[in-house]
Write a structure and sequence with these properties.
This protein has three helices and no strands. The protein is mostly helical.
């Protein structure tokens, strides 16, 4: 790893949990509570410990670091 490398650690052990974390962050960004609950339930049933939790969080952070593609318009009345 170089001096200015962004990679700080090797890839997570479970790529399926990383993808689940990305899906969770996507559902959270779009306000889909039903999908969030379903993903959380899936995670709790299939998780095997700290390594899966770390992979889930890494996927979640990777998606949350991407800025939104659009902004909601401000439609306030100015006086």
């Amino acid at each position: 790893m170089g001096l200015f490398s962004r990679k700080t650690s090797p890839a997570p052990e479970n790529p399926a949990m990383t993808e689940l974390g990305r899906e969770f962050a996507n559902a959270k960004r779009h306000g889909d509570r039903k999908a969030m609950r379903q993903i959380a339930r899936t995670f709790s049933q299939t998780s095997n410990g700290d390594t899966d939790a770390a992979a889930f969080e890494k996927g979640k952070r990777a998606y949350e670091d991407i800025p939104p593609a659009y902004f909601k318009p401000r439609r306030s009345r100015r006086r």
